[in-house]
Amino acid sequence: MEAMLKIEKLNVNYGAIHAVRDVSLSINKGEIVTLIGANGAGKSSVIRAIMGLVKGKAEEMTYTSPRDGRAVSIQGRPAEDHVKLGISLSPEGRRILPQLTVEENLALGAYIRDDKQGIAEDMEYVYSLFPRLKERHRQKGSTLSGGEQQMLAVGRALMSRPDLLMLDEPSLGLAPILVDEVFGIIREINAQGRTILLVEQNAFAALKAAHRAYVLEVGAISLSGTGQELLNDPKVRAAYLGG
Fold first, then answer.
1. C-alpha distances in angstroms, 225 versus 98, 172, 213?
2. Which of 181, 202, 190, 197 is nearest to 133 (CA)?
3. I need a labelling partner for 166 at 20 to 30 A (CA). Which of 17, 28, 30, 190 fits?
4. Chain mean pLDDT for the chain
5. What are the residue ranges spanned by the domains of the chain?
6. How much of the chain exceeds pLDDT 90, in percent?
7. Residue 26 and residue 7 in contact, taking contact as beta carbons nearer than 8 Å
8. Are 209 and 186 in contact (CB under 8 A)?
9. Do the bridges between strand 56-57 and strand 5-14 make them parallel or antiparallel, or are there none, so unpaired?
10. What is the CATH class of 5-91+164-240?
């Protein structure tokens, strides 16, 4: 099977800091792939480099669109090009616009589109995933709870109608009951045909949801396997799952 996203030997530097070291990974169509690791391991740098938000250097960074089967290099392209290709990111920290309403924030996610009917349909789709956003669609983003803001960030990323959805720390700062809800929705989005790359500190929830996973330590991949294999791995259990 040809990988939808293939990364070979990605490196990211911030001045003298070598944040990502020779990271290679692949994602196949229809998978949930997760990247786990401690805070500061380089997870967000990997996902931001893939999206073109930070400068990375790789031997290969290729995206094969399921829309036309065409493989293109995404290295060095601006983030807007990635969105047009079908890649979207829900960033760490949510980054919603607090003075805009829920509906206005969602509409921003569709800024590259001009199909009004399709945009309206996708907004209803987001509301079906997150009914609380529908209830609060005229409220400003600043009035939402942390969990609702996270739902809004994911919904906004879906509004570009991506084939590959990248989620950076979707459970960060959420109460356990909301973590379960967010991961349930991630599984539902995947079941409806979207491929997902998930960067997550909550290793247990991420590995339970993932088809495959990579462990990142000090900027380099130390382990990879299926989600279940890593859940059962003694080293992963000791380091990330409380033994």
1. 39, 24, 6
2. 181
3. 17
4. 92
5. 5-91+164-240
6. 77
7. yes
8. yes
9. antiparallel
10. alpha beta
- Residues 27, 50: contact at Cβ < 8 Å? no
Closest CA to 75 of 54, 58, 88: 58
Are 78 and 87 in contact, with CB atoms under 8 Å apart? no
| 159 CB-near residues (< 8 Å, 6+ apart) | 106, 107, 108, 109, 110, 119, 122, 123, 126
Both tokens assigned to 101: 């309403």
- Judged against a pLDDT cut of 90, whether residue 14 lies above it is answered with yes
Gyration radius of the chain over CA positions = 17
Read off the amino acid at residue 175.
A
Tokens of 49: 């480099």
Q: CA 46 to CA 187: how far, in whole Å?
A: 22
φ, ψ (nearest 5 deg) of residue 14: -115, 95
pLDDT of residue 243: 56
Q: Containing H/E element for 84? A: helix 79-85
Largest Cα span, the chain: 51
Comparing CA positions, the residue from 89, 119, 93 lying closest to residue 106 is 119
**Statement: the pTM of the whole predicted model exceeds 0.90:** yes
Could you tell me what percent of the chain has a pLDDT over 70?
A: 98
Q: What are the tens digits of pLDDT across the range 115-139?
A: 999 999 999 999 999 999 999 999 9
Mapped onto helix, strand or coil, the DSSP state of residue 61 is: strand
